[in-house]
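This part of the workshop introduces the protein records we will be handling. Backbone structure tokens are a discrete shorthand for how the chain folds in space. Once this layout is familiar, the rest of the handout is easier to follow. The record below serves as our worked example for the rest of this section.
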Amino acid sequence: MEKNLYFLGLQLPEDLSEVITAMKEDLAARYGSRHAMKVPPHVTLVPPVRAGGEIDALRGMLPGFAAGIRQPQLELDGFGYFSHARDRVIYIPVNLTRALDELSEKLLRLAGSVLTLPVSPGGRLFRPHITLAHRDLTASAFHLAWPAYRDRVFQAAAPAAGITLFAHDGTRWQESGYYPFAPGI
């Protein structure tokens, strides 16, 4: 059986998603980093994993799981970067609140009950962020883009809308399921 690539992320409210998409479009136009445009703005909770029919079991669990979670507040503050030998990432940091950390751990446990995950609950450093540019951001473009974003002021706070299951279609990430949180903060 063929296995597809999936991941779980926090869906942002539409107005915040639009602001962040505009930043991704700016980085694509000015610095040639278009890869991040292949997925809507999100905060990754469960990293990409290959799955076949077992994804249906997870789909069956997610509505009840999400409905039992109170909407976590997302607090965005400024810009950051990761720079590794072959990958440079410009992102918006999301403050790691207790609610967000607990949500990540619970969701990893749930997903791990039916999928073989590349990380285990408690076994990863969770650094919530929203990626703006990566993979195709060349070293020279990074050295131009990062100074343009480093000192920009950006702050936002909003409740996460829900959990989205994303599936890779071979070209880009598509929403494959949406599971709203219980409203109210």
About this structure: The first strand starts at residue 4 and ends at 11. The longest helix spans residues 14-31. The radius of gyration is 16 Å.
